[in-house]
Amino acid sequence: MSSAGRTKLIYVKELAFAQLPASPIMRAVPYNTGDAFVNNRDTLTSARVQSVRSPRNVRLGTNQPEKSLGAELVWQDFDELLAAGFGDQWAGGKTVTANVTVSGAIITLESGSWTDYFREGVKEGTYLLFDDDGVPVILRVVSINGADLEVAEADGLTTAALTEIVTAEQKAMVFGWFGQRVSCSASDTLIFSTTQKTITASGELTGIWGNFKPGDNIHIIGSANNDGWHKVVSVSGAVLTVEGSLTNETIDTVVDVDMMTDTGRVGNGNNLPSFSFEEQFLDHNDGAGNFRQINGVKVGQIQISFQPSSFVQLTLSMMGAKITPFSGLSVAASVQEVPDREGFDTFTGEFRLGGAIACISGFDLTINNANNRNFCLFERDANAMTDGIPEISGNINAFFDDHSYANAFFHETRFAPFLRMIDADGNSYAIEIATAKFTGDTISIGDIDVTEALPFSVMPNSDGEEVVLFRQNAAK
User: Fold this and answer.
1) DSSP structure string for 231-275
2) What is residue 82's DSSP assignment?
3) pLDDT tens, residue by residue, 304-313
4) CATH 3.30.450 matches 181-264
5) Using alpha carbons only, how large is the chain's radius of gyration in Å?
6) Is residue 321 left, alpha or beta, with left meaning phi > 0 and alpha meaning psi from -120 to 50?
7) Chain center to CA of 413
């Protein structure tokens, strides 16, 4: 007999489709109770008619392993699988600690490759906060070549000239998806207000806050009194409001101010990687049937659900190309266990429409990647998997307080929802949708309340950018 408490699901990203990497370091996946991988093989019933009245012959078709993985959404437990479902790679959002040497604009790992840190959000175009001989500097990643990371200054153009490190030193490097250099002057100013807790930009700088969102941590370098980390409360045009304290200061001289966010983000894209999974049933006494592998697994659909007074629920629908029979051997060289953290709840965070706080009673988002297995004749397993055009939709539940949502549906008004959840440790995830449109409106009259259910579809973005972004911010 198997105990649910003695089961484990582990995975590793594949370098080639449906091929297990050599000596894989695999990662455990926490999950709710539910079905293991199911092999949905077709049943082929013979049409042959025999002279005697007997059952028809039956064969089973190709392997089609699938799994619906339901879990509570927990900080960083599912980051790699979430990114795979979005079809992108995380950009920023993590702190990488490594031993490095430095020469000019090249930061070199003492061992390994920077590609080993893709899971940590290291990516060309991201920004990092680096300790340059005791002086913090903001840099932009220009290129990644094995152990070498080429960087520029925060403007992304000026070649960095870092202090040389010949003997490797340990550095903690904070990576974020966005940074910039702003050039102040008498007409292009930054004004820091102690009482208002705001940073106001003027002149040519009024648009500099466009890429920052509530919950972002921003690091500033170049001011006289306000360098360091600040958490964003809100953004309104040229005004950024932050938590904590600021010192009154006006920067109105010719000086460059560098800034970056430690936010990590992933957006819907065209890079849908595959994974190898292993299911473990660790209390099988015979020791010969504890492990089963599934290869060529892609995240076909992501569902994230927010309902009142509950944990945020995540469902990953996955489909694979190959599945093995159970055996007594695990393929994992080692397993990275998942830290024990509390999940995100639905009563700590915020929901905004058009930048303003809005009251809703439920929110669901679904990304369907429309994957399809490709089979060759005389092969039991799929040899490839194509990715279709994603369908991104959701549903908003709300109290019928006024006619605004109903009229938005009637007039086909586009809207941009932003939802941020915060865990018990202060870490946050956020969902940012560039543009969506309600596709229905059901007004329900109950015994007490009148409510609305509004399905929506996510629309293409006119500037060609990602239409859905998933952001993360570590507590600071």
Assistant:
1) EEEEEETTEEEESS----EEE-SSEEEEEEE--EEEES-S----E
2) H
3) 999 999 999 9
4) no
5) 26
6) alpha
7) 28
d(C-alpha 260, C-alpha 271), whole Å: 26
Query: 77 burial class (0-12, 13-18, 19+ CB within 10 angstroms)?
Result: buried
Structural fold of domain 95-176 = Elongation Factor Tu (Ef-tu); domain 3 (2.40.30)
> How far is 297 from 269, CA to CA, in rounded Å?
18
Amino acid identity for residue 167 in this structure: T
Residue 256 pLDDT = 97
**Amino acid present at 438:** F
> Residue 425: is it exposed, middle or buried by C-beta count within 10 angstroms (0-12/13-18/19+)?
exposed
* Phi, psi at 72, each rounded to 5°: -80, 135
Per-residue model confidence (pLDDT) at position 267? 87
132: confidence class by pLDDT, cuts 50, 70, 90: very high
* The pLDDT of residue 288: 57
Question: In the chain, pLDDT over 70 holds for what percent of residues?
Answer: 97
Using an 8 Å Cβ cutoff, are 213 and 232 in contact? yes
Where do the structural domains in the chain lie, given as residue ranges? 1-44+63-88+268-476, 95-176, 181-264
- In the predicted model, is pLDDT for residue 156 greater than 60? yes
Q: Which residue carries 């007039």 as its tokens?
A: 411
Q: What is the mean pLDDT of residues 70-91?
A: 92
Q: Give the Cα separation of 214 and 423 in Å (integer).
A: 15
For position 30, what pLDDT does the model report?
A: 87
